[in-house]
Amino acid sequence: MTLAAAFLGGAKSRLLPPFVPFQFFGAAAALHVALWATLLLAAADFPRFLGGVGPTLAAVHLLTLGVLTTTAIGAAAQLLPVATRRALAAVWPINAVFWLLVPGLLALVAGMYEGWIGVLIAGAATSTAALLLFAFLFADNLRRAGSLPVIAAYGWAAFASLVLLVALGVALSVDYEAGVLPDHAAAALAHMVLGSFGFMGMLALGFSHVLVPMFALASAPDKRLSWIGFGLAAASVLTGALGALAGSAAALNGACALGVAAVAVHLRLMHVALSTGMRKRLGLSFVLIRVAWALLGATPLIGLLALHGLAGPNGGALFGLVALGGWLMTFLFGILQRIMPFLASMHVTKAAGGPPLLSDLGGGATLAVHAACHLAAVAGLAAAIVLDSGLAAGLAAGIGLIGALAFGAFTLGVVRRLASGRA
Amino acid sequence: MFSNRISQTLHEEHRATIALMERLEKLISRRQGPPSAADAETAQFLRALASGVEAEVKRHFDFEEQHLFTYLESIGDRAIGDHLTGEHAMMRPLGERLAALARAADGAGFDPAEWNAFRRVGAEFIERMLVHVQKEEMALLPLVEDAMDGETETRLYEAYAATA
Lengths: 423, 164
Description:
The complex is a heterodimer of chains A (423) and B (164).
Chain A: H1 3-8, H2 19-41, H3 55-83, H4 92-114, H5 117-142, H6 149-178, H7 184-216, H8 223-246, H9 249-276, H10 283-307, H11 315-345, H12 358-361, H13 364-387, H14 390-420
Chain B: H1 5-28, H2 40-74, H3 79-105, H4 112-147, H5 150-161
Helix pairs in contact in B: 1-2, 1-4, 2-3, 3-4
């Protein structure tokens, strides 16, 4: 059964209390503000960042754990039980995930920022417990997603990546104290590949097969091509992670080449969905999503250029920015500004009775400010890396902060209406 | 796309309705104020909108409520029909108001108050219709495709064709 069919067919009984997903969305919105504020403080070092404890590493984890993962968990916590038609056995485990993850990542980030290794390790351990608990809940639901085989495949790939990246994350944290790893940089690169492309990337690609046709009112993507795309993406992640650990340039080049092919298939599927879908005027959210797709296309190409020393002296930093800030973060905000009002509308009624309009729950102006600032900030950071300019990075971070505050205002507006129960 | 003729017919009508809604959205999004009464293209669209909403959408809703949802209830799936009927109830008065405003403006144009009302009602109708069609496309039509037997398909298809 499709996600939408499950929503309609008695989904209210499978809805979590609204505070469950929205505590994750609210935390992610706050951490989004913290991310840009931290980048502002880290501006001088940002253009050349290739790893190592300090403010930029803290900012990266505010993005990956604080914004991307926290949002993904909040959305998955609600969407998966509805798609699998199996309610969560209890709500407390997902609440436990929240109360382990947020304090854990705050400690991790503080430890990274200040170089407090003990705090960093404690934060890593707590975040790990949260992510492993989420992985268990996620896997349990995936087992029952019989009617969504391609989506389940992406989900299992994300699950496997999550377990491996968490293990590497713990090892990297302990390595600062105990020197347990033979090559810290190689493990960090593998951790980044698994996090960006394995966990978040697989979730983004997989859910796109459901959400994009749903928003565009299009048919489900072609099954054969979807499986080919999955195979290429999984091969790319596997090759990239192993190549990073082994320090193999050949494998990393292969991973980028597989990535180019995987992206080409994915974008072909998305293009067909949009061109054949009934709905053409898709609004601001799809401006962000289209930009994200363009940057997804650029990511493996920049990876190839960076491997061959053709992306400038800061090619590695540019690759990371385009993948995380350009593709994943842009895509996430495009989707989130549709998903949040939709989920809220299931719990809210209009003052005059009846279901609210989604436009009653969404903030057009604040979203426009966020979109403009976000895109300008990402472009500014890319320029800062290319020009090796801390000043440019600081300006871009300031613009990003304004955008983050605007998105925070949008989130607060939705949560406020949700709390009152009225649109 | 659908082998069931009911699902396929409703799907094609959804496509036409969405195209109509997108043209309406483009019209009410214009910053220049109300269109001129002399604009032939707008007049033609207003007529198409009025007849589309008054006749086609009403016919579509009536068929679903009187035949399709009762069939689904008979096979034990009432929830979808109840949910969609509730949405129909929200949209019917909006559609009637929108069609009335469109008919009044055809040839005479809009005064400022009428234009504001047309934009307000139009925006709400578009949004509710888009969400409604989304739900029917993703949930109702596949359910009909999977669940309906051949005899029922023939009976309901002929009943629907007779209302055209």
